[in-house]
Write a structure and sequence with these properties.
Strand content: under 5%
Shape: globular
Largest sheet: 2 strands, antiparallel
Strand order of the largest sheet: 1-2
Distance between the termini: 7 Å
Number of helices: 12
Number of domains: 2
């Protein structure tokens, strides 16, 4: 076997094992690279400003960029504060017996339909009783000590992750391409052209993909907020923000956004019965999200995925489900960027074997 090919295969295998073994660190590094890519233009622009005859120090420019991110995230959080406050107020004034009767009314109607049409030999109330027993069994099976321990563990891991990402992103922004230049300097001359070509294509495709995702989120936010506002749904902007963020999860995100919208519309109406008004409200929310999803599937996704990463829609579909099988929701989110890197790298290596003499040396 060609020694160069063997070395490349060995390196890829070692890299894959390292990524799998240090998956948490790799996730922090990946998130940091994305954040650094997003914040670098803003940081560079702030760094160019002249103050008292000199440029703003780069570390101050980075801190200012961080402040902008914190401000944007704070605005997102503030959008949900009125909604949460209203939900707490609604829950504090609820008559749970009335709510329970309203919730089981459709079940009783379905039971009566089955009994009246002789579709079951069960006594009336069997669906309600089985549902109640199932809920009680589920609640009794919850170990609240484990839930609290897992919540504390998640909180600790989350803050460690935030600190790690903040630290790594800071140095990626501060070095301003130094690490990239040092890595390039380590590449042997005979592989330099292939490596630079692959790196340039990967950066360009990932940048296009990231810009496409931002455009998709903004489009979904705009369409959902306008549609929900026209439908007269409370907290239309808050629901639209949640839907835009949830849409980062392929296929599952739109379902989460629509479910959240229906839940908010239903809960803020103040009436938990399945009245005609509530049914019409649910239909309105469902119609808005169905229209948004249709536009996303027909226009936005083909434009973003097919054009930005230059892959066939069926190819994208398969890759997303492979990512979901390997790593769940995080795998679905990261599937397309990771696949882009692997595809471009393998394509450039294959082109190198066909075009460059150094790859054709025999063992």
């Amino acid at each position: 076997m060609n020694r160069t090919l063997a070395a490349i295969i060995g390196f890829v295998l070692l890299l894959g094992v390292a990524i799998w073994y240090f998956s948490t660190i790799f996730a922090y590094l990946t998130i940091s690279i994305v954040l650094a890519t997003v914040l670098r233009p803003l940081t560079n622009q702030i760094n160019r400003f002249q103050v008292f005859g000199g440029k703003i120090p780069r570390f101050i420019a980075i801190i200012t960029s961080y402040a902008v991110v914190v401000a944007v995230l704070s605005l997102f959080v503030l959008l949900f504060v009125p909604l949460i406050s209203e939900q707490i107020e609604v829950l504090s004034t609820l008559n749970f017996n009335v709510v329970y009767d309203s919730m089981v009314a459709p079940l009783k109607w379905f039971e009566q339909y089955l009994v009246t049409n002789h579709l079951t030999e069960q006594e009336p109330g069997f669906i309600v009783d089985s549902t109640r027993q199932g809920l009680l069994k589920f609640i009794q099976g919850i170990n609240f000590t484990d839930v609290v321990n897992q919540l504390l563990s998640f909180t600790g891991s989350f803050f460690v992750g935030v600190l790690a990402v903040t630290f790594i992103t800071f140095f990626l922004l501060y070095e301003n391409g130094l690490i990239r230049r040092q890595i390039i300097a380590l590449i042997p001359n005979q592989y330099f052209e292939v490596f630079i070509s692959a790196l340039y294509k990967i950066e360009r495709l990932l940048s296009n993909f990231l810009l496409g995702i931002l455009f998709q989120m903004f489009s979904i936010f705009s369409l959902a907020s306008i549609g929900l506002s026209i439908a007269g749904v409370n907290y239309a902007v808050t629901i639209a923000v949640f839907a835009a963020i949830a849409n980062l999860i392929p296929y599952l995100g739109p379902l989460l956004g629509g479910s959240f919208g229906i839940l908010v519309a239903f809960s803020t109406s103040g009436d938990f019965s399945f009245s005609n008004e509530n049914i019409i409200l649910i239909v309105k929310v469902f119609s808005v999200f169905a229209a948004v999803q249709a536009i996303d599937n027909i226009v936005l996704q083909p434009l973003i995925f097919s054009k930005s990463v230059k892959a066939h829609p069926l190819e994208i579909f398969v890759i997303i489900f492979v990512g979901a099988t390997i790593a769940g929701i995080p795998g679905m989110v990261a599937a397309i960027p990771v696949y882009t890197v692997l595809r471009v790298s393998s394509t450039e290596i294959y082109a190198g074997f066909n075009q460059y003499r150094v790859f054709k040396s025999k063992s």
